[in-house]
């Protein structure tokens, strides 16, 4: 059935007697479209029909649809497809239900009668599953998997949340604003997506979670374990290192196409934040706030001044125990006392 997801155009569940159930997501793109166009479902949609039957044993559809050829090779004899429409108010159009028989002679009349009664109930169940899955998937896309789980668990009241300790990663694309005067909005969006994709990938591969995209910046957290805060710091540091290396590769590829070289600055900090619902009564944001977030933002401004793409706060450098060098003590706007700023040892 179709899905509402930025990466997948549809999802299918396949059940085989005596075998495992498999779930497949069909990605957007030429290959996915071409594969779908070679299915009985696409044929029925094009003709405006809601059901179809192919006698595989007699070769019907085998030469037209690779799926039916595969069923025939596995001993299939008969294939049914029924298209069931979801309620009009649903963004999802409906679901396709298919059955393949390996019974000699195909489906019997009694079996067809049972299927006719069963399919509408299955369609209703699919609608419920689709609505639930769509809500959870889209929420995860916009808020992150861990945050969406908390929202769906009932953490939805303004002000509801709590203090957590976390390693904070703030990544900012250097001098990106100047590019908006040279490139068209569509090109700017493309550049942002390319860099945000690599940042998001390396944050998530180390169990971090992006909380917010802010213009040309990304805010992510790595919640700490009370017994081992170093683990979260090392995960954040691994993400930062991988982001910087991947960014170099991306810029190298773009230079081959005479595109802009876009640097990224990363700041790592460790502290207590409030993680919960903030906003207006009818429009909330599940995010983090607190002095630690503000300090990370202020530290990022020093990257250009000090000429380093990766800076760490003292709390992060000490807790991570990574080899580091202090660059000095600096005053940050809105922070009462000067703070010590660190870089990785041996880096320029």
Automatic annotation (TrEMBL):
InterPro entries: A/G_cyclase, Adenylyl/Guanylyl_Cyclase_3/4, Nucleotide_cyclase
Name this protein carries in UniProt: Adenylate/guanylate cyclase
Annotated GO MF terms: adenylate cyclase activity
SUPFAM superfamilies attached to this UniProt entry: Nucleotide cyclase (SSF55073)
PANTHER family per record: ADENYLATE CYCLASE, TERMINAL-DIFFERENTIATION SPECIFIC-RELATED (PTHR43081), BLR2264 PROTEIN (PTHR43081:SF11)
Organism: Rhizobium leguminosarum bv. trifolii (strain WSM1325)
Cross-referenced Gene3D superfamilies: Nucleotide cyclase
Residue ranges annotated for the Guanylate cyclase domain, each copy included: 167-300
Residue stretches in coiled coil: none
A single GO BP: intracellular signal transduction
PROSITE patterns from the UniProt entry: GUANYLATE_CYCLASE_2 (PS50125)
């Amino acid at each position: 059935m179709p899905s509402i997801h930025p990466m997948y155009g549809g999802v299918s569940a396949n059940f085989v007697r005596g075998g495992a159930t498999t779930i497949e997501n069909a990605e957007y793109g030429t290959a996915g479209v071409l594969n779908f166009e070679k299915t009985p479902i696409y044929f029925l949609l094009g003709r405006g029909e809601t059901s179809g039957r192919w006698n595989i044993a007699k070769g019907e559809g085998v030469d037209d649809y690779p799926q039916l050829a595969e069923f025939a090779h596995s001993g299939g004899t008969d294939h049914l497809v029924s298209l069931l429409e979801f309620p009009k108010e649903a963004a999802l159009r409906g679901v396709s239900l298919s059955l393949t028989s390996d019974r000699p002679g195909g489906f019997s009349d009694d079996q067809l009668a049972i299927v006719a009664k069963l399919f509408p109930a299955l369609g209703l169940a699919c609608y419920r599953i689709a609505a639930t899955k769509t809500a959870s998937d889209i929420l995860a896309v916009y808020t992150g998997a861990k945050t969406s789980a908390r929202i769906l668990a009932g953490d939805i009241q303004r002000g509801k949340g709590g203090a957590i300790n976390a390693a904070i990663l703030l990544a900012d694309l250097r001098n990106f604003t100047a590019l908006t005067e040279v490139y068209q909005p569509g090109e700017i969006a493309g550049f942002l997506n390319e860099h945000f994709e690599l940042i998001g990938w390396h944050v998530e591969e180390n169990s971090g979670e992006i909380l917010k995209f802010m213009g040309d910046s990304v805010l992510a957290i790595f919640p700490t374990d009370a017994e081992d805060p170093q683990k979260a710091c090392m995960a954040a540091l691994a993400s930062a290192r991988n982001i910087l290396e991947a960014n170099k590769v991306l810029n190298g590829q773009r230079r081959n196409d005479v595109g802009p070289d876009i640097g990224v600055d990363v700041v790592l900090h460790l502290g207590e934040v409030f993680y919960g619902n903030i906003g207006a009564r009818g429009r909330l944001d599940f995010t983090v706030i607190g002095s630690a977030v503000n300090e990370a933002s202020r530290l990022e401004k020093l990257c250009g001044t000090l000429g380093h793409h990766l800076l760490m706060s003292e709390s992060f450098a000490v807790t991570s125990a990574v080899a580091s060098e202090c660059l000095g003590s600096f005053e940050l706007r809105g922070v009462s006392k000067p703070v010590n700023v660190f870089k990785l040892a041996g880096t320029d």
